[in-house]
Amino acid sequence: MAKVVVNEDLKHLLASGKLVFGADETLKFLSAGKLVKVFLSSNCDALLKSSVERSGIGFVSLPETSDEIGVICKKPFSISVIGVLA
Question: How many CB atoms within 10 Å of residue 66?
Answer without folding.
Answer: 18
